Amino acid sequence: MNRVSSLLVFCSPENILRQVVIERSENNCISQIFSLSNNQSESAQTLFFDGIITGEIVSIKQNSTPKILKNAVENFNYFDFRSEFKLQKRPLLIDFGTDSTEEINVIISEFASQFSTLSVFEFMAACISRPALLLGNSGKLELNDSTDLILWEQVDLVSKRLTTKTRLRKI
Known about the structure:
Blueprint: E1 2-12, E2 15-18, E3 20-24, E4 30-35, E5 46-54, H1 60-63, H2 66-75, E6 77-79, E7 92-94, H3 101-111, H4 120-134, E8 150-153, E9 167-170
Parallel strand pairs: 1-5, 6-7
Antiparallel strand pairs: 1-2, 1-3, 3-4, 5-8, 8-9
């Protein structure tokens, strides 16, 4: 088991938690999510990080059929970093085309200014929750979920925006 905590944990667009610990088994299955506020002392053997913890990035291109991709293009403001970004009334769905944090970091540093009007939580919903839902998953970080955890560092937590220095890493 390992335990991690951060300033914020993005479980879903509707569920953003503060001061919690995520406990995972060796195969990345989440066994507990518990509040630090209810504990008398800090949780033993917990790694504390500065940033926001989320589940893994989901790529429609990498994980879907042509039918699901067509559905994404027709029903979402689908953005795949090969096309021009235009904010439309449909829900935003971001496809990095990869789950590699190294490749995603390069893309974020290049395109962060284009997303300056979006909250970081809307951005996370667009590249984590919505793609997962479209692929038939829960789109949530929850108990018994097997997922890599991603730490979003150098996010402007005051304005809740991405910056050109925002970086992702697996933890």
